[in-house]
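Two folds, back to back.
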Amino acid sequence: MTTSTGPTVLVDGTQFPLYSEEFAADPHGNYRTMRQRYGSLVPVELAPGVPATLVIGYHDAVRILNDPEHFPADPRIWQQNIPADCPVKPMMEWYPNVLRNAGDAHRRYRQANVSAVDGVDLHGLHAIVEREAIPLINTFCENGSAELISQYAFPLVFAGLNDMLGCPPEIGQRVAAGMAALFDSVDENAELGMQMLSGALLELIELKKSEPGDDMVTRLLQHDAGLDDTEMLANIISIYGAGLEPQQNLIINTLRLILTDDRFAGDVLGGSLSTRDALDEVLFNDPPMANFAISYPRQPMLIGGTWLPAHQPVVISLAGCNNDPAIGGGERIGNRSHLAWSLGPHACPAKSVASLVAQEAIDQLLDALPELRLAVPVDELSWRAGPFHRALAALPVVFPASPPLNVK
């Protein structure tokens, strides 16, 4: 095995392409194959010619996530040899933000981010989600059918996130377009997406300097960390990255489970199992970011008899680790020992906010349309290709046409 930034040398010279449609269609089958062939540490490609190690062993993941000294999140040495047009580079390259730094820089950024998140009124979030959900449901409830990503989950999550950040709609639309291009890392438009996103958010920063409010961007600006405009931009991008696509996927993946799994379909709507139980199941099996929490070893590291090359990405498979046979199957209802929020110094600081928004969004929809069901057989649903997310391309549903809800 090499100790450079080149590809991991395997016995048979193969690497699993995480970006392929085949992987997206059956990740759990692929995780099982990986485990049989390689154990906990698997040679993969994040894009053509971009090697990495995927960690699918729970205990190895915990060790790595809790050891930022040997496994820092700073990609600057790695990215020196990555072409500018690499589709995953915009998603992985260094920025002065909480996600892509280590040591003192990471602590400074994290303190500012935690402060910004902690200022969110969790009780007020219920009202925000309801305010956004009901008008969205009213746009399709009389039709008897809907596509829940484009007509419900995305606009709801996006509007709620903009509300928390203090972002007006005209800037927010450009943010949405940029984030969509950035997350679809198999698309060569990722670089254009970053340009669109940056331009919109720089306008937001200037707006909040002149018109501060009770919002996350204002709290970042006013924090003692003293973030400059470049740092503000990078950290707001990371907030949108963590709050938009993953939140949408969490809602949609949970709705898919509720609508297709007999353990939930009858019981959730009947009241014996809660939406929270369904969310826990999804966070174990189909977390919205299936493979992420990327680090770059400072030096060659020996883990479980396998050498990890210096400066080559080590990607934690949150989905693979959650389903590691070494930690047993067990009951998932009410079990929150999964890694979906990561752990260690880079653990998600907004899991309470994200969980509340997802639960409230699902409950609003199911309360309004209790006879909701899939419009197509579950095996006809398609998953979007990409190395990081676990995301459906669409979730079409049908239901008895219903009159519009009263808007409070």
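---
second:
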Amino acid sequence: MSGQDPSAIVAKGRMGPLQIAAVFLCILLNAVDGFDVLAISFASPSIAKEWGIDRATLGIVLSMELIGMAFGSVLIGGLADRVGRRPVILGCTLVMASGMFAASHAGDVATLSAFRFYTGLGIGGMLASVNAMVAEYANDRYKHLSVTIMAAGFPIGAVAGGSVATQLLAQFGWHSVFLLGAAATLSLFPLIFFLMPESISYLARVRPKGALEKINKTLARMGHPGVTELPPRADSAPPANWSQLFSRRWLATTVALTVAYFAHIMAFYYILKWIPKIVVDMGHPPPLAGDVLVWANVGGACGAIVLGLASQKIGVRSLVVVCLIVSAVMISVFGFGSDSLGQLSRIAAFTGFFTNAAVVGLYAIMASTLPTELRAGGTGFVIGIGRGGAALGPIIAGFLFAAGSGLLTVSVLMALGSALAAIAVLLLPRHREAEAVV
């Protein structure tokens, strides 16, 4: 096929085994991301008891990898648009595995915080890169579904890993939780190396040395016909950079996406980071508190999958706005608390359902709104700045609790983030080329 755009071949063709395998691998990567992020949440009650940490200090510790994720998403996400998705994903896997291993050997708050920040750098870069990779490996028909199911890997990893972590906590202590994360993360490295070629969209845009040969090799592995030559470049514009995110064309989109993600993720991580400590402070043992967090992630996984399926029939923006509004309500309901672990688990599950459905819906909006040349960098920027909200959530809650605020007051204040995010999504501009898929 002479001069045909290889990206169009992937977008319009069927999903071959390699594409399905790559998307599934991205789901697994997001799953280990989910466990690596929440490992500190499972371990925090035991760490706080062993080291005598107060709530304000614990809030800072809980946020350190989120701060690292902010830097990693912005800096490493942009790097993926310049050097490729595949090398960044491989590098981030090694950073995450080594950071989790190092955290298991921490002996004080400062050391643990440093290792969690380092781990967060890898997680942030990974999130931006796999979001772009899935969007570029999936065809147009299954793009939304692939991105949302990929995002569902995050709570699935927290559920699977958390179920094991609660058993490890009871028998071996908090150190074992981080060792589990290190082993699970490192095990994916060879799978990435052999089953995840570089994105064809990236190769077709950047055109490194041997691009045509690499593209045809990957197309053949996907079961698609090759091309004899690459089509002419659309224009002679310089390579994409962050300044384009703030051009007249993309500024309003960048601001709306960033505000929405920042505000909602602050509320989202308040729930995920503080559940175990809140439940322990109600008088329940740490392993049972971990079970409540697992149920929050069971709900989150279900929410992501349901949203992905619903997005095949209903516009993603409408779904996300509804989920954000219900998220604000459920986070407030969580603030009433309960003496019953069963009831707490049910509330946590429903809260997780809507909060995580909104998060994965935002990922889908990013993937389909931003163009290929800005997708990883733009997603990285939005996620990176948004992670500032993720880090602020646990910290603000910690200081509010330390100042004497009750659970209901803190929960209602944090729920306002989801309400603000709903407004930002409603104000998100529609770009002509994206209207058919958003």
